[in-house]
Amino acid sequence: MKVQGVLAADVCERSVVKSRERIRARVFWLLPIVFAIHDGEELLTMSRWLAVNRERLDDLAQHSPLGKRLISSLPTAPLQVALAIGAVALVVLVATVGAASTRRPGARLYVYAALLGLLFLHVFTHLAQAVVLRGYVPGLFGAVFAVLPGSLYIYKRLFASNLLTIRAAVVTALLGLALFIPGALAAFSLARWLSS
Hints:
Helices cover about 85% and strands about 0% of the residues. With about 200 residues, it is mainly alpha-helical. Helix 2 crosses helix 3 (about 65-75) and helix 5 (about 105-135) packs antiparallel against helix 6 (about 140-160). The protein starts with a helix and ends with a helix.
């Protein structure tokens, strides 16, 4: 009787652990979902918005060589926007597959955390752009209503499961942010090359 009770408890505990791992693995997949919502909005609005606001953007960027380079490299045709978003989506998907298949902190988790941190911080770039331009910018609503709550929820779950510390979250987010401009320029260049 005692052995059966121990075995039953062990089976129950393993079942709970497997259930937690499945739930945790599912949490990782929230990132591509919020990315799709955010970038779907950009896909639907960016080309037209850029056509209407190009002169304002050029005026704002005239004092910054980096600003000029970013503005001049923005994809303007819907196909280019779609290709650039698709390139970034592929990176997000690969990172998510890697993170969802890991059981402990490591390189795959930190790559995912860098993308998560970048997307989280990107919310505030959209807010800053909206303030500076005094109006709507592509991706603003998706950033505020999908990316912000989604990324906060993912962080909460990663912290609760001890997969990510606050220090690691800050470091990886800053790394993701540092790679944002080179990554965006690479995606824009790839989109132009593929569409030509």
